[in-house]
């Protein structure tokens, strides 16, 4: 038996008037009820603080997690608003003129307004991100050159077509991003590919191919600024930013630098985490020595323990990117190697000791 549809509670509409009826007249327009819901556009935010990945020792397991390659470059937010592009660093600086190819690619996207979250990188011959290559393209620390070879791997979409979509789940934001940035594109803006599978196997494969590591994201979570655990980073070789608090002189070493003395953040201060004496080139060591000598100071900004000879203490203004294998029992870096300096305007990413 076919079930009859239930009667509507709304009154039936009057039939259309025939041609013989009186002239049609609309009702007098009533003022809008303030309680009536509406769907306004969200104003374009000047900046959204980025979601940061929490460092963990092993990949998570479970169906909620998806994985991406961890790119080694500069975190950027690309703002597109009716043909106008702004490229903002993690530290909040406008670097639009330093990434002209990325800016041009953003203007060509098939949308009027958007904010993309991603990483600017320079790739080596094997297709891996090369942090030193990116720094050289930008003219080194404090340089003002534009990196025309840099590309953006976009991995999130925060604002789309007039609407703030940070409250949407990771999966939903990803689908919109994939519609906007082609998965097989080879331009200056490319989609950072999602990898589905077992986290341990994906991480092992990334390390075998010489990559820095992987990022794990909870597909069910919205985008939240800060380091809240929705995103995790697992590194094959640890690499973090540390503040240079001084250096040991050496007549035999490149640039006269025997060892850099490093510190991490701890609360409102700095804590000494050891030194690094490898990874320098002749030119980089000489330039670094000149910078450090220009900011020499009498007292150390972090307690380095025993009294040291032939040490030049410096103001804690330079942030070095350091690779290392592990930590010692007393909280010092093991098998550390110098990679380069973080840029003056974007040196906010300093390792924090809990």
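^ Assign residues to that structure.
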């Amino acid at each position: 038996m076919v079930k009859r549809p239930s009667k509507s509670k709304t009154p039936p509409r009057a039939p259309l008037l025939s041609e013989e009826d009186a002239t049609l007249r609309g009702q007098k327009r009533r003022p809008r009820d303030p309680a009536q819901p509406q769907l306004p556009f969200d104003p374009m935010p000047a900046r959204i603080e980025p979601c940061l990945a929490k460092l963990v020792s092993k990949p998570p397991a479970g169906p909620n997690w998806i994985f991406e390659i961890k790119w080694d470059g500069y975190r950027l937010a690309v703002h597109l608003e009716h043909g106008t592009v702004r490229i903002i660093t993690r530290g909040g600086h406008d670097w639009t003129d330093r990434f002209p190819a990325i800016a041009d690619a953003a203007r060509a996207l098939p949308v009027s307004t958007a904010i993309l979250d991603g990483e600017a990188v320079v790739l080596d011959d094997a297709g891996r991100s090369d942090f030193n290559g990116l720094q050289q393209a930008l003219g080194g620390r404090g340089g003002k050159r534009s990196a025309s070879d840099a590309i953006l791997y976009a991995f999130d979409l925060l604002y789309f077509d007039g609407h703030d979509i940070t409250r949407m789940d990771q999966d939903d934001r990803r689908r919109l991003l994939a519609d906007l940035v082609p998965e097989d594109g080879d331009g200056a803006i490319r989609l950072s590919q999602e990898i589905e599978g077992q986290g341990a196997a994906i991480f092992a494969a990334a390390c075998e191919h010489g990559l820095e590591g992987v990022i794990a994201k909870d597909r069910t979570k919205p985008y939240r600024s800060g380091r809240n655990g929705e995103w995790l980073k697992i590194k094959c070789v640890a690499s973090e930013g540390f503040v240079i608090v001084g250096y040991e002189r050496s007549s035999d070493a490149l640039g006269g630098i025997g060892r850099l003395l490093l510190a991490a953040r701890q609360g409102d201060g700095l804590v000494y985490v050891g030194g690094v004496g490898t990874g320098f080139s002749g030119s980089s060591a000489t330039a670094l020595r000149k910078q450090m000598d220009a900011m020499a100071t009498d007292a150390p900004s972090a307690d380095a323990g025993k009294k040291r000879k032939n040490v030049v203490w410096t103001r804690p203004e330079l942030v070095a990117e350091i690779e290392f294998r592990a930590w010692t029992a007393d909280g010092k870096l093991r098998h550390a190697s110098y990679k380069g300096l973080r840029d003056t305007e974007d040196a906010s990413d300093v390792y924090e000791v809990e």
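Helices lie at 100-107, 131-137, 170-180, 199-208, 282-293.
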